[in-house]
Design brief:
The complex is a heterodimer of chains A (348) and B (334). Chain A is built from 11 helices and 7 strands. Chain A is 41% helix and 9% strand. In chain A, β6, α8 and β7 form a beta-alpha-beta unit. In chain A, α1 packs antiparallel against α10. The radius of gyration of chain A is 21 Å and the shape is globular. With 334 residues, chain B is of the alpha/beta class. Chain B is built from 13 helices and 14 strands. The chains are: A alpha/beta (348), B alpha/beta (334). Bound molecules: thiamine diphosphate and magnesium ion. The site of magnesium ion (MG) has 6 residues of chain A, from β4.
Chain lengths: 348, 334
Amino acid sequence: MADHRLPENEIALDWLTSMTLIRRFEERAGEQYARGKVGGFLHLAIGEEATIVGAVAALRPTDYMIATYRSHGQALARGSEPGRVMAELFGRVDGLCRGRGGSMHMFDRERRFMGGFGIVGGNLPLAAGFGLTSDYLGSDDATLCQFGDGATNQGTFGESLNLAALWRLPVVFMVTNNQFGMGTSLERHSAQTDLQRKGEGFGVPGMECDGMDVIDTWAVTKEALRIAREERQPVLVEAINYRFRGHSIADPEDYRTEEEVLAWSKRDPLVTFGDRLVAEGVLSDEQRQAIDLEATETVDAAVAFAEASPEPQPSSLYDDVYVLSDQVRGWYSADHRGAELRKGEELS
Amino acid sequence: MAEMRYREALNEALAEELERDPNVYLMGQDIGVFGGAFKVTAGLMERFGEGRIRDTPISENTIVGIGVGSAMTGLRPVVELMTINFSLLALDQIINHAAHMRYMFGGQVSVPIVVRMPQGAGHQLGPTHSHSFEALYLHVPGLLVAVPSTAADAKGLLKTAIRDDNPVIFIEHESLYSQRGEVPDDPDFTIPFGLAAIRREGTDVTIIGISRMAQTAERAAEQLAAEHGIEAEVIDPRTLRPLDLDAILESVAKTNRCVIVEEGWPHGGVGANLAALIGEQGFDDLDAPVGRVTGVDAPMPYARTLEQIAFPHEQQVIEATLALFGDRRRASRG
Ligand SMILES: Cc1ncc(C[n+]2csc(CCOP(=O)(O)OP(=O)(O)O)c2C)c(N)n1
Ligand SMILES: [Mg+2]
């Protein structure tokens, strides 16, 4: 890892603000889960904020970003309203996806955040598809695809890297190596543990960044995006980090020791970056507290917004199964057995 | 009208849509230089170039996934999978991604992709290359499913599929590629989804044939009329999602009997589903239980003698139909 100078003050503060928001948001989401406000799975990104914020900061607004089921942070970093992200966790109509996706499936079309996806490895082909669109339309938008260390064992990993290299698609594949796929550690799930090398055989060169360091993540991702965009050469970036919480909510964490967690927590990306900003005179302690307070207030407001948002109407159950048009006016839903034959939603 | 083969009708549909919309592109194994495993895409790479007619590696799930990603961002991919059997490798992208994306993301995105592939037995290709999976795709909300059985339908439905904003599973049939049929010349000829074709009018029984079995049903109907005095109405639904259930129920209301013919397996098949729908919504019209003729409940064998008895022919359709009349003497009178 190179020693990086700090970026301009405004940018540095922006990153700290964004990382702080993600941290406080995730903590609050965990609490809301415990209160029964959030259902299903909840994969928190606590510890992974630098990887998210650094990578997203390297993108242009028109670039495509796609991630996994652990992607509240990506949505926030791309600028999605925290209230709408929280409302999605609550399964409310004002959620980013109107309560259809939940924690694992965030999506914000306007911000080109092209989704969180619940299938491990499922998003790599989609990312290559975005790259194909950019290529086909002659635009210089690039795609950043984040996925976990565990996903590098899926067939889609090799297939997508091969195709992206073969067709020279502007895609940066970023493996977030947080040391585990659920409870299986890297060395127990991958023969090649130097993950940045896993693309070499497919014609995809590797780079590595310190995923606990927002500046390094930003710098490496930026260069990878430049290579993808300008040289039409997909790149595999390995961001090395650590998740501080369990895989999802119910996780006894028997697969790792407290010492290990403690050792990594000394490198907490939020703390180390904040400390550095203070040490280098960019930030006062008061300002630091103010940023934290503001994040907490934003998250308070997000919870209030989610709480106030209505539950989806039962009548919306069939909305958006299809794009309706003259030819698909509705559909016969075999599960409605009234005397009347139901044809789904009719076009208005 | 021009007479052409089913494969040529498909080729014309593709060429016309490629011509009409620059965002339509084709992708699949051996579709370019080689012209397609069944020559459906012959000549298209020469005409439209490698950028729009893309040969891919053998990576079904990822090919479909790239199509889905590009469809989410403004293109209109038509993906060819060499046969429907290989689409099993792409089920994750087809079902978990293409079919559910719009719903899952609250309507923010649409996935206008067409996945084309042939199915069907009869070529002694054994259990990994001969199956019929329309029932599998029919099962999935979010997909549209087309099963054209004539050259004209192949062309008209494919053009509609490409223009539609939903993911479409477009199931061709290996045994139909060389068949000839009349196809309208009009480049704007399309066939809407959800509109069944009445292949033959009749008053005594409704026979519904799926995919190639629409033709088997039609031939069986001719024999039933000639040899048994039974006038069958033959319906080809042409698309299974959306389904023209009205046409089926209207026909059953007239004939009071129904037989469904499909090439795939019986359990959870198209016929099982249709029989349930007809039972639920047309029970009062039925004079006999709905009959089903399906492929046998076994993998497709290689040996010709076994393969030929493993999927329906006219004889099984005739027997199943006669059984509905509960009149053996009539059957034996011939
Ligand atoms: C195809 C598939 N198999 C299994 C799962 C269950 N699962 C969810 S997350 C996960 C671990 C993935 O680990 P990794 O890719 O390293 O990502 P991380 O959770 O560490 O961010 C597993 C096995 C799944 N969602 N999809
Ligand atoms: Mg992991």
